[in-house]
Amino acid sequence: MGLYDRYLATRVRLSDAHLPETVALVITERDLLGDGAYDTLERFFDWAVQYGTETVVVYVSVLDEEAIPTLRRELENVTAPMEMAVRVPDDESTADAPIQVSIGLGGKSEFATAVQKLAEDVDRGALAPDDIDEAAVEEHLVFPTAPDLVIKTGAERLSDFMIWQSVYSELYFTDVNWQNFRQRDYLRALRDYQERQRRFGR
């Protein structure tokens, strides 16, 4: 860790502001093609745990669906400091591990599936329409944890990920590409988060 990184780390640790308990990372399929991309992801997991994150969610946006099996195999072999759950578009089971990875499973699809399950519950008499509330929707989401901080690398635009869960999240965009993402970039995201006043839509 260089001098500037140590300076940032000290600022983060000495601040009275809270650190995010849940951090989401948005990267692309192309980001994982570069040399050392998975090593960077392993380091990212370590940084998150080091600075108190309890849940890490990673979304890999995918253009070529044929790449999903390869991405899944590679990601399931990544060394992580906590248990990891990997989900792809065909998976509907809840990702309940401390590290959750979505490969091409977008927020629109996830939300539509949750609505379908609620409709099935109503159809078989297990749920009354008037009983459908936010909690009922969240019970049927693959990724139920709402992130405190969402980090998007490489471009300042939103993606189709956690559209329900991230409505009150703090968004951090960095023009640093994933291949060049370093600990100082993660620390900058944490400092930016600490300096914000969260309003949760108010």
TrEMBL record:
The molecular function terms in GO held by this entry are: ditrans,polycis-polyprenyl diphosphate synthase [(2E,6E)-farnesyl diphosphate specific] activity
Which Pfam family would be a valid example here? Prenyltransf
Keyword Transferase appears in the UniProt entry: yes
Q: Which UniProt keywords apply?
A: Transferase
Q: What is this protein called?
A: Undecaprenyl diphosphate synthase family protein
Q: Which residues form the signal peptide?
A: none
Keyword flag Transferase: yes
Q: Name one GO biological process term.
A: polyprenol biosynthetic process
